[in-house]
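<tokenise_the_fold>
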Amino acid sequence: MNIMLFHSTYGLRPAVREAADRLRAAGHEVWTPDLFEGRTFDGVEAGMKFNEGIGKEELLKRAVLAAAPYSERGLVYAGFSLGASVAQTLALGDEKARGLLLLHGTSDIAPNAQVDGLPVQLHVAEPDPFEPDDWLSAWYLQMGRTGADVEVYRYAGAGHLYTDPGLPDYDAEAAEATWRVALGFLETLG
């Protein structure tokens, strides 16, 4: 699979590169665009402030420009937290998208979004302050209405960005379970 993997609000940290290496080791081609142009952050507040300074439209423009050279190949869009919301937006707008892998995040769904059975897999902590239960329930129903084929995996007791070993949220057991399921999901898309 050809995978476009977007980073979180922390920026393009080592954990994103390690995730890309794990995907490559499983036989996938992976791109990790740096939407923050080299900036990384140690705290979520600093990353969110920087992201707000860029603005949603500019961030999506950067993501579209990064994906455009490869979209004809049929991309699987993937991302961590903020990057998951970017991946979701791009996947729902790309008729050639092969799949959507969301790690730790979702996004608003355009009312007119339509896909034809797009495979979607979401991995999220339970509970997650950034992805509350009522939001996830509504998101799941809306994604179904778009025509997406959605699977949701919840990880009790894990922190928000539990797959990043460099953050306090890290949960080794939940992270390994996530990667095992996610790699299986990607295999089904081939």
About this structure: The chain has a mean pLDDT of 96. The CA atoms of residues 126 and 132 lie 9 Å apart. The beta strands are 2-6, 29-31, 75-80, 99-103, 119-126, 149-156.
